[in-house]
Amino acid sequence: MEREPLLKVRGVETYYGKIVALRGVDIDVHEGEIVTLIGANGAGKSTLMMTICGSPQARNGSITYLGEDITNLPTHEIMRKDIAQSPEGRRIFPRMSVMENLQMGAAVADPAHFHADLERVFTLFPRLKERQEQRGGTLSGGEQQMLAIARALMGRPRLLLLDEPSLGLAPLIVKQIFDAIAELNRTDGLTVFLVEQNAYHALKLAHRGYVMVNGTITLSGTGSELLSREEVKAAYLEGGRH
């Protein structure tokens, strides 16, 4: 018998006013997987991520996490369920130091793990260790993205939601960030749901992937299957191997 997914999205429809943003979306994320959602800008990828987090809420359909229906829960309750999000646009606390940002992320976790967790994120992102007294707003874009992910990790999530982690970053930084995600999955078994425009990197990293067009899932398969599909290559990979 197939095990229940950690995160299950079924028939989700989300609206902005009268505009339909998501049209009957079905997605599964199993424990220990990296699952990616790719699509063009404006396809609805970030809307799905925000709907999972409760803002906006789905008008129709259901979202379950660990078998519990979270569709209509407020965001703050969803975020208490071992789910952490690193949202699009690197929303760190710019006036706080790197260390203070990480302490904010750790507020939901057991304080006994703080130092071990700190060492783990500093091992993943050594640049943050060098910059720990620096204000978040003075970091480079790549460093801010590392801090956003590290802050999410300090909450010891079972499920990490990453929204466009490579957006606007130099190729070398993108590689560092994707390597860190792979390492977390490999060594800690962290489950990751990744929304990403950089289809090539995302599909190479992911166990499974989905393609979204105009708020609808049009394709799904393993990362390598989707990488080899002609329509995926034509739409997302031509000249896109950053």
UniProtKB/TrEMBL annotation:
<dbReference type="InterPro" id="IPR052156">
    <property type="entry name" value="BCAA_Transport_ATP-bd_LivF"/>
</dbReference>
<dbReference type="InterPro" id="IPR030660">
    <property type="entry name" value="ABC_branched_ATPase_LivF/BraG"/>
</dbReference>
<dbReference type="InterPro" id="IPR003439">
    <property type="entry name" value="ABC_transporter-like_ATP-bd"/>
</dbReference>
<dbReference type="InterPro" id="IPR017871">
    <property type="entry name" value="ABC_transporter-like_CS"/>
</dbReference>
<dbReference type="GO" id="GO:0005524">
    <property type="term" value="F:ATP binding"/>
</dbReference>
<feature type="domain" description="ABC transporter">
    <location>
        <begin position="7"/>
        <end position="239"/>
    </location>
</feature>
<comment type="similarity">
    <text>Belongs to the ABC transporter superfamily.</text>
</comment>
<dbReference type="InterPro" id="IPR003593">
    <property type="entry name" value="AAA+_ATPase"/>
</dbReference>
<dbReference type="GO" id="GO:0016887">
    <property type="term" value="F:ATP hydrolysis activity"/>
</dbReference>
<dbReference type="GO" id="GO:0015807">
    <property type="term" value="P:L-amino acid transport"/>
</dbReference>
<keyword id="KW-0547">Nucleotide-binding</keyword>
<keyword id="KW-0067">ATP-binding</keyword>
<keyword id="KW-0813">Transport</keyword>
<keyword id="KW-0029">Amino-acid transport</keyword>
<dbReference type="InterPro" id="IPR027417">
    <property type="entry name" value="P-loop_NTPase"/>
</dbReference>
<dbReference type="GO" id="GO:0015658">
    <property type="term" value="F:branched-chain amino acid transmembrane transporter activity"/>
</dbReference>
<protein>
    <submittedName>
        <fullName>ABC transporter ATP-binding protein</fullName>
    </submittedName>
</protein>
<dbReference type="Pfam" id="PF00005">
    <property type="entry name" value="ABC_tran"/>
</dbReference>
